[in-house]
Design a protein that fits this description.
The chain is an alpha+beta fold and about 325 residues long. The protein folds into three domains: about 5-80, Winged helix-like DNA-binding domain superfamily/Winged helix DNA-binding domain (Arc Repressor Mutant, subunit A, Orthogonal Bundle); about 95-165 and about 275-305, Periplasmic binding protein-like II (D-Maltodextrin-Binding Protein, domain 2, 3-Layer(aba) Sandwich), CATH 3.40.190; about 170-270, D-Maltodextrin-Binding Protein, domain 2 (3-Layer(aba) Sandwich), CATH 3.40.190.10. The chain is about 40% helix and about 25% strand. The chain is built from eleven helices and 14 strands. Strands 3, 4, 5, 6, 12, 13 and 14 form a seven-stranded mixed beta sheet that branches. A three-stranded mixed beta sheet has the order 8-7-11, covered by helices on one side. α1 crosses α2, α1 crosses α3 and α5 (about 105-120) crosses α10 (about 285-300). The chain is elongated. The mean pLDDT is about 85.
């Protein structure tokens, strides 16, 4: 039997309003219907589902077990519909106002800012307030509209996230270093080379490689020197101090110019997600939407810096 979508939605609406108000009378007032019309819509919904959703007494209405589960599902559907309507409406609005955006220091300066400059050329009424920090700022508390984070964004109940790309890393060194020490031919050869480690939270970060079966393995590198800043580690690598495991976005220009050479013992590992985050609000403002769309377009499916390192045809 075919179902009339309009009838289905009005039945769901009558049911949700009845649960929220506690009576058919109050639900009918919300919907601009008579009490009997609201009750009939819920009754038809129950008939169609073949389940009783409400227990009716002379004093009050109570949800049944089936009604409780169906009510939660209805809320999810209505929230999705409301969010979609807000998104479509936002696309018709002008992009203007001040966008407060927080970025990682090096990645933000080298990779995000060029995208934002292009965006400003397209939307002259958009104003930027850009801050840089490698710590995780509280977007709601600090009034930030949008943030970009490297690594797992974490479980943020007050935020919405969209993955805009993936951070990849490769082993690299300077031509002067390779002229002196030669090129490693396997991962095992790295034990005979000077390796530079990136220190995070007091520990040297591992070098992650992809095995032939696709599984990931962390190499037990014993670094000769350690550095706690990505750009400083790149500088040490450029000076010939040793081999480093660096993000492709950080060294792409150096590899392209010949100042660094990558050791492609395997495809660059997709190491960390790159995520755009914004406060969980019902309305997605046009200024946030166009910025996230521009970042996704710039970094997906493969950003310009990663094309240089891919071994795929």
């Amino acid at each position: 039997m075919a179902i009339d979508p309009h009838s289905q939605l009005t039945g769901i609406s009558a049911f949700v309003h009845t649960v929220e108000t506690g009576s058919f009378t109050a639900a009918a007032a919300r919907m601009g219907l008579s009490k009997s019309a609201a009750a009939k819509k819920v009754a038809r919904l129950e008939d169609r589902l073949g389940a009783r959703l409400l227990e009716r007494t002379t004093r009050r209405l109570n949800l049944t077990v089936e009604g409780e589960a169906y009510y939660r599902s209805c809320l999810k559907v209505l929230d999705e519909l409301s969010a979609t309507e807000a998104l479509l409406a936002s696309r018709q609005q002008a992009v203007s106002g001040r966008l407060r955006i927080n970025l990682p220091i090096s990645f933000g300066r080298l990779c995000i800012m060029p995208v934002l400059m292009d965006l400003l050329a397209q939307h002259p009424r958009l104003d930027l307030d850009v801050s840089f920090a490698d710590r995780r700022v509280d977007l709601v508390e600090e009034g930030i509209d949008l943030a970009v984070r490297l690594g797992e964004p974490g479980d943020q109940a007050s935020l919405i996230g969209r993955r805009i790309g993936t951070q990849r890393s490769v082993i690299c060194g300077s031509p002067a270093y390779f002229a002196l020490r030669g090129y490693p031919q396997s991962f095992e050869d790295l034990a005979d080379h000077d390796c530079l480690g990136f220190v995070r939270d007091g520990r040297s970060s591992p070098w992650t490689i992809a095995l032939s079966d696709g599984a990931l393995r962390d190499l037990a590198i014993k670094p000769r020197h350690t550095v706690s800043h990505g750009e400083a580690l790149r500088d040490a690598t450029l000076s010939g101090l040793g081999l480093s495991y660096l993000s492709t976005w950080l060294i792409a220009d150096d590899v392209r110019s010949g100042r660094l050479e990558s050791v492609l013992l395997a495809e660059p590992v997709m190491q960390w997600p790159i995520t755009a985050l914004w406060p969980r609000v019902r309305d997605l403002t046009p200024k946030v939407r166009v910025t996230v769309d521009a970042l996704v377009k710039a970094f997906s499916p493969l950003p310009r810096w990663d094309r240089l390192f891919s071994q795929s045809p």
